[in-house]
């Protein structure tokens, strides 16, 4: 795919080259003001379901299964996925998340899903 997609913790400083900043968590991150977030969009509906998020619990040993289950949820959530793809067609998008684990979180899984086409 020929699009520019970045994943970043929302606690990092916004950068001029972030493009459209999209928060992909269902819950607003603690201690982050709306001004600091500098969002183009808060896309709650692309986040994993509460049930899946609770089951995963950011446990690295559940990562592979989490990705599989999350992809299935995304497959059934065509409207928000299309919305993200349209943003990517327009330019750079930075997916933002609040989790501490930078390798095992829904934004990383979502980026993988979008890159896979």
TrEMBL record:
Pfam families: DUF488-N3i (PF22752). InterPro entries: YeaO-like. It comes from the Bacteria. This is DUF488 domain-containing protein.
